[in-house]
């Protein structure tokens, strides 16, 4: 199984979550984790699962102006992610081809408050995945930071658990025997494949 994780990150929070997801995926098969600045559209070729994550800015996905502000601040604080500069996920999605039913999930990082107040970048990512023909196998997920912009305790571990649950959905399957003895393999709640 090949998992590709594309992340956007200025302060490193989303990057750290992406690495935790990659750690879980790496125990199940090949994994590629790539910053959006280096993610050519071809990076997702042959992927069985595509995971896309980014920070929440102004209640949604980042813009070039908010990225610029974030990079400047992160550099000033000495917290800039190595691949902080450059285009974000909005631009990346413009280049991605339409796919046919490739499994995918979206996540974001955001402040620890009601999502109605903070917004969630993962909702915009999820919408774009759908528009590009990806088949989302789990709801978008958020990982939370405090008002000092540091991940809350336990969020990195929760990312591993979330990734395990997503991967279980993709590869675990539920074997079901029909009345005539035929086996069906349920790979997720929306699809039954003949085993
Ligand atoms: C310019 C800017 C705007 C932000 N706007 C929001 C927001 O609307 N809602 C929210 O929950 N967090 C917001 N945040 C906080 C980020 O989502 C949070 O710091 C995130 O973890 C950063 O991810 P990164 O470390 O991967 O860059 C904002 C941060 C910046 C720099």
Give a concise summary:
With 195 residues, this protein is of the alpha/beta class. It is built from six helices and nine strands; from the N terminus they run E-H-E-E-H-H-E-H-H-E-E-H-E-E-E. The relative contact order is 0.17.
CATH class: Alpha Beta
Q: What's the number of domains?
A: 1
Helices and strands, in order, run as EHEEHHEHHEEHEEE
Radius of gyration computed on alpha carbons: 17 Å
Share of helical residues: 25-40%
What fold name stands as the CATH topology? Answer: Rossmann fold
Which whole number gives the mean pLDDT?
Answer: 89
**Through-space gap between termini:** 17 Å
SSE-based structural type:
alpha/beta
* Number of continuous helical runs: 6
Number of E strands: 9
Bound molecules: flavin mononucleotide
What's the structural blueprint in terms of helices and strands?
Elements: E1 2-7, H1 13-26, E2 30-35, E3 49-55, H2 64-76, H3 89-95, E4 103-111, H4 115-118, H5 121-131, E5 135-136, E6 141-145, H6 155-172, E7 174-177, E8 183-188, E9 191-194
Parallel strand pairs: 1-2, 1-3, 3-4, 4-5, 4-6
Antiparallel strand pairs: 7-8, 8-9
This protein binds flavin mononucleotide (FMN).
Observed structural traits:
binds flavin mononucleotide; 6 helices; 195 residues; disordered C terminus; 6-stranded parallel sheet; Rossmann fold; alpha/beta; single chain
């Amino acid at each position: 199984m090949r998992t590709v994780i594309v992340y956007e990150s200025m302060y490193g929070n989303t990057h750290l979550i992406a690495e935790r997801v990659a750690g879980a995926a790496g125990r199940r098969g090949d994994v590629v984790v790539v910053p959006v600045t280096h993610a050519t559209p071809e990076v997702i070729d042959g992927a069985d699962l595509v995971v896309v994550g980014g920070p929440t800015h102004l209640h949604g996905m980042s813009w070039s102006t908010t990225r610029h502000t974030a990079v400047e601040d992160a550099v000033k604080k000495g917290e800039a992610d190595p691949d902080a500069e450059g285009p974000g996920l909005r631009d990346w999605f413009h280049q991605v081809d339409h796919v046919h039913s490739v499994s995918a999930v979206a996540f974001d990082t955001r402040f620890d408050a009601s999502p109605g107040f903070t917004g969630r970048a993962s909702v915009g990512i999820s919408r774009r995945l759908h528009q590009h023909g990806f088949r989302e196998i789990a709801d978008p997920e958020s990982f939370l930071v405090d008002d000092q912009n540091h991940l809350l305790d336990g969020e990195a571990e929760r990312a591993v658990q979330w990734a395990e649950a997503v991967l279980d959905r993709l590869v675990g399957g539920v074997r079901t025997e029909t009345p005539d003895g035929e086996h069906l393999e349920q790979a997720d709640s929306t699809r039954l494949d003949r085993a």
